[in-house]
Amino acid sequence: MNRRAWSGFGAVALLAAVVLLMGAQGQQPEQWLHVRVDDTRAEGEIVRVNLPLSVAEKVLPAIRAHKLAEGKIRLSELKIHDVDLGAILEAVKGSADGEYVTVQSKKENVRVAKQGGYLLVKVREQKKEGTPDAYEETVDIKVPMTVVEAMLSAGPNELDLLAAIRALRAHGDAELITVKERYQTVRIWIDRKNTSE
Predict the structure, then answer these.
(1) How many domains does the chain have?
(2) Hey, which of 47, 62, 89, 174 has its CA 20 to 30 A from 164?
(3) Is 9 contained in some domain?
(4) Rounded CA separation 100/47 (Å)
(5) CA distances in angstroms from 94 to 88, 99, 132, 155, 160, listed in the order given
(6) Same domain membership, residue 116 and residue 42
(7) Model confidence pLDDT, tens digit, residues 74-131
């Protein structure tokens, strides 16, 4: 190749590199779904799952279990003590912020609320109350209402998990679920890190 051809090739290569770099800088980092389970017992396990939401979106339709098919869960398959979960979520979706359910008893406190664009569920339960080995189990759920709406998009009898994952991709970092039991802690969240540390 002559000098002019090399100069033209170099200019095209440099232009391509600049375009690629600009495109890479303009892309949003991948959102990751994290699940972390810590069991503090001597024989307990530590489990870490880190999955890009784009991979979860592709894999979920391929999972077929008796309660899950094509990224959807049929509500009739869920045992929730004769509660129409779909009707409750549909009612909450269009309502104003507020505390919807509060249950307080000697052993358990439950709170369901909508606040700042999130559906909040908090459960506090006393175990073995009045004994030396008493402890508290806690559940904290914080789901963006856009994700709730996406889950309900399949209709009154199904929860669309695939649509929920797509809706999660539009959010920034979010703590979704934390469960603390006597020996085990479960945490589910999304962020742009590819590790759960």
Answers:
(1) 2
(2) 47
(3) yes
(4) 34
(5) 11, 14, 46, 15, 18
(6) yes
(7) 766 555 545 566 666 767 777 889 998 888 888 888 898 999 989 999 999 888 777 7
Tokens linked to 106: 């000697």
β-bridge pairing 46-52 and 32-39: antiparallel
Indicate the pTM of the whole model.
Answer: 0.72
Domain that holds residue 165: 31-191
Query: Is the distance from CB of 120 to CB of 114 less than 8 angstroms?
Result: yes
User: One-letter amino acid identity for 78?
Assistant: L
The answer on 74 and 19 residing in a single domain is no
Establish if 197 belongs to a structural domain: no
- Residue for token digits 């508290």? 136
- Bridge pairing between strands 158-160 and 174-180: unpaired
Return the SS3 of 70. Answer: coil
Residue identified by tokens 């399949």 is 154
61, 55 contact by CB (below 8 A): no
Residues whose CB is less than 8 angstroms from the CB of residue 107 and which lie 6 or more positions away in sequence, other chains included: 125, 126, 129
